[in-house]
Each structure stands twice: as structure tokens, then as C-alpha cells.
Amino acid sequence: MGTRLRQFAPVGVVLVLTAVGFFLARAHGESDARHESSHRAEIAAIRVRDHVAQAGALADGLRRFLVGEDSSDVTTERFAELGASWLGPVGVPAAAWVERVPGSERTRYEQRIGRRIVVADSSGALIPAGVRSTYLPATLVTGSPPLSAPGVDLGGSSGISAAVARPQTAYRASATRLVRLSDGTAGLFLVQSAQRLILGTVEPGFVVLFLPASWLVSGTPGAVGSNPREQITVGGGSAGDLGDAATAVSTFAEAGQPFAVGVPQGKVTGAAAVQPWLIGAAGLLLAVLVGALRMIGARRARARAEVDRLFTLSSDLIVVAGFDGYFKRVNPAFTTQLGYTEEEALSRPYIEFVHPDDRALTEVKSSSLREGELTVAFENRYVCKDGSIRWIEWTSTPVVEERLIYGVARDVTERRLAEAGLREAEGRNRALAEEQASLRRVATLVAQRTPPEELFAAVTEEVGQLLPVTSAAMGRYEADGTFTTVAAWSNSSVAFAVGKRWLPEGKNVTTMVFETGRPARMDDFGDASGPVGVVAREAGYRSAVGTPITVEGRLWGVMTAASYLEEPLPADTEARLASFTELVATAIANAESRSQLAASRARIVAASDDTRRRIERDLHDGTQQRLVSLSLELRLAESIVSTDIEEARRTLGRVAGELVVVIDELREISRGIHPAILTEGGLGPALRTLTRRSVVPIQLGDVVDERLPTPVEVAAYYVVSEALANASKHANASRVDIEATVLDGSLSLSIRDNGCGGANPAAGSGLIGLRDRVEALGGSIQITSPSGQGTHVAVRLPLELDFTPDESTDPRPARISASS
Fold first, then answer.
1. Confidence tier at 604 by pLDDT (50, 70, 90)
2. Residues 6+ apart with CB under 8 A from 9
3. pTM of the predicted model, to two decimals?
4. Which residue from 44, 265, 632, 641 could staple onto 246, CB 3.0 to 4.6 Å apart?
5. How many C-beta atoms surround the C-beta of residue 585 within 10 A?
6. Which positions ≥6 away from 243 have C-beta within 8 Å?
């Protein structure tokens, strides 16, 4: 028996442990269910409290609206629109502004609003109110039940009279008990004192919001009725029915009323229900279960901590101050935000906490409060214990009988800083946008190859209108050491006339830039000297800056800006000027490059034509003449050779004939290199010669007879020659029309054939060469060749040619570099 007991002892121990584990797990599951239910109740209470606070903020917003402007013209329709825009998005159905009307004033009130004071009967119909000593009629309503009609009296029911009588209603929202209306809707009324400014007179009254119980619970009207899993009790009135089920309740006090939110206590389900049986079936896993219990306990602790954080106090400051100038009571938020202990806050006059610059205005507001006036949204600065400054917005109401002032405030420092930062950012962004737009306009002019004079004037005007200056000017340093004003702008009179030359000497920004090649500034013209400095001082300049215009490493000119104001120009003026001078330098460099390229191409074409002409002359005067002489000598030899040597005579005759052929071919080659008729007679005779030699019939129209510049005649001749070659070889043309006339200082050339068309200017080297030759002379060529409709070549060549680069944009010797 003892052995059996010893054998079953472990089993007994396991059974005992299993039983203990079973009951512990069961108890723990029930505890978790209760805790989870309590947690759900706390979450529901937090939601209800947040909704009450949100409604309080809406009531405060309506109060601010009514007291913030003359609301004598605020009608019920306007108030309803305001309610729709403010209350509708959050789900609050109805609001009203009510005022206390003594029974003796009822008739006057009804005449003033044009409606009778009414109450709702048991069916919801509105009937005239009975005789009472005091009424609380709704003067302005949003039009939604239960505040659907102006004049409805709220003083006879719903606890609104009690809420109005509470002292706290003067400075914050106060709630009634939960009531059920005649239509079955359950809810409470939120009341806050709200004076109304009418024609300069403050009329006392109250803002009233109706908060349905369904909205308090879920934020959505109708939730309690459709899902009765929560019950809310306010001041003894309840909504929602949980029956006889066990409940978990969370309570709190808000807006002067006790709130209780209940949810049904959950049952042990899921793993918690199965866990004891798993322990009974597997007692050896007891250690694992203990670990699981520890994890569950840790989660429960974290959940409790989260709930505690949700109940952190609001950051709003609440104080009670006496008429003697001392705080009587401050809330923890005051000490937390300002850094003073409660003893320090109560022991010193509150004016000492105010920033010195705001004390006078604060004293004025305090005096008004002692006289019984309200203070709404008054902002002043408080000095914290650490010396920092905080902006505080106060809403205060006095109780003259108690000689106390009740104030509610919030820290608006971040809002103030954000507004100031936003204004600064808007100013910077606006200035940057204007500068970028100005630079884009200048860049567009540069890209469009605007003439230098127009570009300089436009840049100078953009600088003058963009920067905070009185005048702006641009100058060019000349090769002879002088300085020329190329553009000027002023909002009054221009001190430096365009085109006038100056000597860059003395003390002035123009000379400083000339000598250093770097930006320069003068904030005092008292010691300005030199021609430029004297004129600037006499013009009244107080401050000026200059930025060099550097073109490909050399100093080209300077852009200056000046002001009549005593304050120096901003520190970034030089950098902003540099943005414009860079674009000007780019335009000048591009103009120089284009000028040099055009001159280079023209010189190449002229050199090529001179070479052709020299080769043609050498062939005609040298080789061709010697071959003709040789041919004559052979004919002479043929004539004097004896008839007995017939074979020799035939050989001499054959050689002389072939020599004539060679001479003809050489003559044709010579004409192709450079036709002599072009040099001797000009373009008109040369074109007529081409007409006679062409295999395609040519109709020669108007052709200029006077001599033109040689490069123009050569280019026109080769254009016609190439066009005729294309017409005969590729276009299968049967007719070509040619015209060459002088119009507006240019040679206008037209060659039109009736061939097959379809010519591609980019496919043949001949047409490309013609385009290069024409454009090298500053002309233009246009080839139109639709398939099946022939080809038309139109050319315009300027008659005034300049083979030297434009030096007007680069007169400055390269003795000063941008980095010197």
C-alpha cells in the first residue's frame, strides 16, 4: 500500500497541480474578462468625454462669433447656415442662442423677434407658453429638433435653467442631465454664457447645443438605438438598456455633471475558456501556462498605462484672480507651462508675470474686468521662470460680488510663431518668384537673340523694378580706358545718360569694379570722387553696389544699382545682380561667337572664290594659251611635211585634233571653276550664258544688270548652276524659270522648274554646299519641292557684307580678368 501510494504520489501531485492550475486559469480568465470590460468602458468614457469637449469647443466658437462682431444683422437663417457649416460636419444636430426674459418683458420680446414664446407639448407640437416669472426663449436657432423654431422656451424643462444658474457657465460650458424628448430622442443640452454684440451693446445670453446620446457614444446620431451595447448616464438620466446583464462602468465628471458609461461585462470565451481544460489534459505544461499568464499580466499593465496617459490633463490654463491683483488659484497646467510653483504664482501680483511691454494694456483689461466687463480672446505675453516668453490668450469673466475673476487661457505661442514664420516665408517666396520671373524674361530675350541695345535696356529696367533701388545702370569698359553708359533706368531722373563716356577714376563703384574685377559697394557717398562719384553724390545717392560683367574670363562692363535711402542696400544685392550679369555675359558671348562665326564663314567663302578665280585665270592665261600655241605649231608642221611622208602627216593631224579636244575640255573645266564672264560682265551676262548652254529650256525673267558685290554674284551664279544641274539630271524638267532682282538692299533669286519634285535638301552635298555658301554671306535659302509639283529654290542675299567680326560687344582689352 505504501509503495502504491508512492507510485501514485507523482500522479496525485500532478492531479493536485492540474486542479490548482485549472481553478487558477479559470479565475484568471474571469478576471481578464472583467478587466477587458472595464477597459472597454474606459475607452467608451474617453470617447464620450472627447465628444463633450468637442461640443464645448463648438459652443465656445459660437460664443466668440457672437461677441466678436456686431451681430445685430445675424438672423436665424444666418445662424442656421453657421450651424450647418460648423455643427453639421461633426454630427451635432442643433444649436441656439437663448436669452433670459422676465415674465414682464415677454410681450416686448415677442414683438422684437416677431414670434411668440412657445413650448412643445407631449406630441411635439408647439403651443404658446404659459405664464411664468422667467423664460429662456431661443432667439436664434439652427432649425433642427429640438431647437427648430425661434421663440421655443427652454426654461421649463431639460435642466437648462439649472445649468444657466451655475457659476461655471459664465466661463465654460455646463451640461444638463440626460433627458428624453417628446419624440423619444435622448440627449443633453450644453450651455455656455455668450454675450451678443448688438449695435455696440452687449446683450447677455447663452449658447445652447443639443447633444444626442447616440452622438456622445459614437459620434454618429442613432448609434445607441441601433446597437444598445452601451449605456450612458448623465446626472441621473440614462440612455441605452443593458437589461440584467453584468456591466462594467466608467465614471467621470465633465461640464458640471457626473457621467457614467456602462458596457456589458464580457464572458470568458476563446482561449480563456479552453485553457483550464487544456491544463487538465496536459498538467505537465503548467510552466508554459505560468509564462503565458505573466505575458497576459504584462499586456494588462501596458493597457492600464495607456489609459492613464489618455487621462492626462488638458494644457489649457485656468486661474482665479482677485480684484487685489493676485492669483487665488492656478491649475497644474499653469505651473507646468510657465515653470512657477503654485506658491510662487500666488505670492506675487500677477502683473509681474506679464511682459513689461504688455503690462499697460493688461492693466487696462484688468480695470475693465473689475468694472464687470468680459474679456474675450485677449492676448499678452507672460515671462516664464526660465526667462522665455509665451503668448497667452485669455478669456475672462468677473464676479463682482465675490471680487474674483475667472480666467481660462491657452498657450498660442506656436500659432504666433507659425503666423510670423508664414508671413516671412510668403515674403521670401514672393520675392523669389518675382526674381525668377524677371530672370526668365531676360533669359527669353537672350534666347531670342535680342539686339544688344534692347537687351541691355530690358535687363536694366528689370533690375530697377525688382530690387529696392532708385536707379540702375549698365556700362561698358572701352578699349581706350573710358567707360560708356549703355543702359539706364530710374524712377525719377536718369543721372547717367545712355551713350555718355566717363573716366573710371576716383572713388566710386564703377572704378572699384574696373580696378578689381570684383563686386563693389559704397554705403556712404560723402567721400565719393571722380566724374562718376561726383555725379552720383549730386544726384542724391546714399548707397550703391556694382557687379562686374565678365565675358569668357575678361571684364566687359559693370551693372550698378543705387538708392536714395539712408539705409544701405540689402547684403544680397550683389548676388542678385550677379544673376542678371551672368545672363548678360552669356548674351554678349553668344553675340561675339555668332559674329566671329559669320565673319569666318564669309572669309572662307571669299577665299574659296578667290582661289577659283586665280585657278581659272592661270588656266586661261597659262596652260590653255600654251596648248593653243602647241596646236597651231602642230598644224603648221602638218602643212609643211612632205606629201611623201603621208603617215607622219596623218599622225600630226590626229594629234592636233585631239589637242583641240583637250583645249575645249580644259575650257569647260575652267568655266566650271570660275566663269570668266562672271568676272568680266557680272551676274546678268553670266546667267544669260548659262541659259544658252543649258540642255533644259530656260525662261529668263527679270535679271539685275548692275554689278553687285563679287561674293554675292558668285553665290547667286552657283545657286543657279546647281539648280539647273539638278533640274536636268534628277527632276526631268522641261522648263526652268529664273528671276534675279534687287529688293530692299538684298538680291532676291528665284529658280522654279516643272520637274518631278521630291528633292531632299539634306540628302545631296550640292544643296548643302549651296546652303552653307548662302548662310555664310548672311543670306537665306528656302527649297520647296513637293512630290510631283516641281522644285522652287528661293534665295535672299544681303548686298552689304562685312567680313570682320563685330567688335562693338568686345571693346575691352583683356588686361583685367574676372579673378584678378
1. low
2. none
3. 0.36
4. 265
5. 20
6. none
3-state secondary structure (DSSP) of residue 348: coil
- Residue 593 has φ and ψ, to the nearest 5°, of -65, -45
SS3 state of residue 493: coil
pLDDT one-digit tens code per residue, 215-235: 888 754 544 444 457 889 998
Query: CA–CA separation, 777 vs 73, rounded Å?
Result: 80
Q: Say if CB 395 and CB 408 are below 8 A apart.
A: yes
The residue type found at 251 is: T
Percent of the chain with pLDDT over 90: 10
Cis peptide before 146 (omega within 30 of 0): yes
Residue 71, SS3 per DSSP: coil
The one-letter code for the residue type at 129 is A
Answer whether residue 191 shows pLDDT above 80: yes
Cell of 745: 538692299
Residue 4, judged by CB atoms within 10 A of its CB (0-12, 13-18, 19+), counts as exposed
Q: Return d(Cα 198, Cα 661) in angstroms, integer.
A: 120
Q: Indicate the angle between helix axes 413-447 and 452-466, nearest 10 degrees.
A: 170
Torsions phi, psi of 636, nearest 5?
Answer: -65, -45
Of residues 272 and 20, more confidently modeled? 20
Q: Which three cell numbers stand for residue 394?
A: 485669455
Chain-centroid distance of CA 256 in Å reads 48
Work out the angle between the directed axes of helices 573-618 and 413-447 (0-180°, nearest 10): 20
Angstrom CA distances, 660 to 624, 634, 665, 694, stand at 10, 11, 9, 23
d(CA 13, CA 318): 63
DSSP conformation class of 644: T
Return the H-helix or E-strand segment holding 616. helix 573-618
Q: Give the chain's end-to-end CA distance (angstroms, integer).
A: 116
Strands (E), 223-310: 231-234, 237-239, 247-254, 257-264
The alpha-carbon radius of gyration of the chain (Å, integer) is 52
Which residues in 491-642 belong to E strands, given as ranges? Answer: 501-502, 520-522, 543-551, 554-563
pLDDT for 761 equals: 67
Task: Name the E strands within 169-292.
Answer: 174-175, 179-180, 186-193, 196-198, 201-203, 206-212, 231-234, 237-239, 247-254, 257-264
What's the Cα-to-Cα distance from 169 to each of 192, 270, 508, rounded to whole Å?
5, 49, 72
CA pair distance 307, 451, nearest whole angstrom: 76
Given this model, what pLDDT does residue 812 score? 42
> DSSP label at 528?
-
Strand ranges (DSSP E) for 302-401?
317-322, 327-330, 375-383, 389-399
Please choose, from the candidates 336, 339, 345, 344, the residue with its C-alpha nearest in 3D space to the C-alpha of residue 314.
Answer: 336
Cell numbers linked to 492: 525719377
Among 348-362, 513-527, 608-622, 631-645, the least confident range: 608-622
Separation between Cα atoms, residue 304 and residue 297, nearest integer Å = 11
Cell of 480: 581706350
Cell of 725: 544641274
User: CA of 222: how far to CAs of 93, 232, 243, in Å?
Assistant: 12, 14, 19
In which band, very low, low, confident or very high, does the pLDDT at 814 lie, cut at 50, 70 and 90? very low
- The gap from C-alpha 768 to its chain's centroid, in whole angstroms, comes to 48
Query: 801 with 711: CB under 8 angstroms?
Result: yes
- The Cβ of residue 307 has, within 10 Å, a number of other Cβ atoms equal to 16
The candidate with the shortest Cα–Cα distance to 776, out of 710, 712, 680, is: 712
